[in-house]
Amino acid sequence: MINLKYNGEHAEDQLDEYDDLLFSERTLSFFRSKLNDFAIDIFLLIAVTNKENKGFIKTRIDDYRDRRFFIDSALTVLEAQGFIKRGKVGTMAPYYLTNRGKQLLGLVIKERKNMSERKE
Q1: Where along the chain do its domains lie?
Q2: What are the b/e assignments for 65-101, b being 16+ CB within 10 Å?
Q3: Whether 58 contacts 64, CB under 8 Å
Q4: How far is CA 72 from CA 42, 52, 65, 95, in A?
Q5: Per the confidence metrics, is the pTM higher than 0.70?
Q6: Which pLDDT tens digit goes with each residue over 76-99?
Q7: Which of 64, 68, 85, 98 is deepest in the core (most CB within 10 A)?
């Protein structure tokens, strides 16, 4: 087992100093444009789970085994863009919304509201 340290701290013990960083509207729209509909659906599942103050566990999705590659890819992109973060609870790794994730949620809600108004 490799035990990496950075400046005397274990990597998992470090706090991300950019957790409170928020995107500008333009940057947020850019990152949103890079997400496909499936990634947004996974993101919304995480948001609903977080509304109940629980972390999102990917293996609890009914068809996780069948769509594992797509789900893992969506989670990787969302985490890399800073919209979600992974916690540690025993052997599980639940996903939680970040402040940037809450920004994205607002944008997605606004988009869906505009789409429903256009249909009327």
Answers
A1: 20-119
A2: eeeeeebeebbebbeebbbbbeeeeeeeebbbbbebb
A3: yes
A4: 10, 22, 11, 12
A5: yes
A6: 999 999 999 998 877 788 999 999
A7: 98
